[in-house]
Structures are given as C-alpha cells and as structure tokens.
Amino acid sequence: MQLLEERIRRDGKIREGGVLKVDSFLNHQMDVALFGEIGREFARLFEGQNVTKILTIEASGIGIACIAAQYFNVPVIFAKKNKTKNIAGDVYTSKVESFTHGKVYDIIVSKEFLHSEDRVLLIDDFLANGSALQGLIKLVEAAGATVVGAGICVEKAFQPGGDLIREMGVRVESLARIKSMSVEGGVEFC
C-alpha cells in the first residue's frame, strides 16, 4: 500500500535493534483517516471470505481492527494480556512473546465471544517474529473456529514471522513489507 509506505518513509523513525517507530501515526497517536484507508484495503483483500469476527491483540492493533471492522460490519475481539475481574468464566489462553517489550504474555479471550462457527480475520500493526499471530491462531483453533487470514500493516520481511505464519497455511496480507532498514540507510520496501 503506497500510502502507508510513503507515511513510513516520511514519519517513521528507525532505532537501533531493528525498531521502527511509527507512533506518530499508527500505534500511539493514530491517524484515523489513514486507518480508514487501511481498513478499506483489508476489506478489498479479504472480500468474499465471509469474515464474522476480527481478532487482534492488546493494545496497538485495537484501533486498526476497529476501523477495519466497519468495512466488514463485524465485531472486534481483542486478546487481553492480563486476566481481569471483567472476564468471568471460561477463557481461551495462549502465550505470546513480545518483540517490542521483550516479555512473554499470557493472552486470553473469553469463550463467550469466540465460537466454532466463526470465520476470523486477524489484524495487527506489526509482524516481526510471528509470536503474536501464532498466539492468536492458537486461540482461534482452541475455539474450533476458522482463521481466514491475517491483515498486517507493517511486516518486517527480513525477520522470520511472515514466512513462519505462511508456512502454517495462513494467508498473510501485509500492506507494507520492509526488506531492510537501518538508521543510516533508511527503509527499503519489498
């Protein structure tokens, strides 16, 4: 998606350690007009897949998933990283290692919201090592539901996550695929 690539070139900041900061428009301060275009593109890419739910992970994917859900006219579920008093009863759980935070989280979704007849589109802001998507896939599989695919805003194609998820048989559609990036050389897209 050229619009997203242009925005990354203009406003993204590369930090040491393979970190791309897009917090001025994607995952801290959110450009809702850009999210609208992202949602429209995901709707085009996954048209005809009969999506019944969108699933994301707390917290950065929520805004993107909510805007995308408007184009599918379906609810959004987000996997929580901590069990709270608000989630009563049975839950699906999975473990996720965060590339950004360097932590392992237990993610949970209430069984009340994810069912075997659901056709689930996964949405996230980044795909690097694939741990978040693997965790979300496990939640969907635990429910006996179907993963129709994963919509990713930014894929670090030089890291193993995209290949790993595709090898699992999951369709991955990334709007901006980064071939390489460095503080000195900037971003090169696939």
In short:
The protein is 29% helix and 35% strand.
Describe the structure.
The protein has 190 residues and is of the alpha/beta class. The protein has one domain (2-189): Rossmann fold. The chain contains five helices and ten strands, in the order αββαβαββββαβαββ. The chain has helices spanning 2-11, 32-45, 61-72, 131-143, 161-167; strands at residues 13-15, 19-21, 53-57, 76-79, 91-98, 103-110, 119-127, 146-156, 172-182, 186-189. The strands form three sheets. The chain has a six-stranded mixed β-sheet with strand order 4-3-7-8-9-10, sandwiched between helices. Strands 1-2 form a two-stranded antiparallel sheet. Strands 5-6 form a two-stranded antiparallel sheet. β9 and β10 form a beta hairpin. The mean pLDDT is 94.
Which helices and strands appear, and what pairs or packs with what?
Elements: H1 2-11, E1 13-15, E2 19-21, H2 32-45, E3 53-57, H3 61-72, E4 76-79, E5 91-98, E6 103-110, E7 119-127, H4 131-143, E8 146-156, H5 161-167, E9 172-182, E10 186-189
Parallel strand pairs: 3-4, 3-7, 7-8, 8-9
Antiparallel strand pairs: 1-2, 5-6, 9-10
Residues in helices, as a percent range:
25-40%
- Derived structural class: alpha/beta
So what's the overall shape? Answer: globular
Could you give the order of strands across the largest sheet?
Answer: 4-3-7-8-9-10
- The helix count comes to 5
Overall number of strands: 10
Overall pLDDT level: 94
CATH architecture: 3-Layer(aba) Sandwich
Most strands sheet: 6 strands, mixed
Give the CATH topology.
Rossmann fold
Order of helices and strands: HEEHEHEEEEHEHEE
Low-confidence stretches are none
Radius of gyration: 16 Å
* CATH class annotation: Alpha Beta
Strand content bin: 25-35%
Indicate how many domains the architecture comprises: 1
- From the N-terminal CA to the C-terminal CA, the straight-line distance is 11 Å
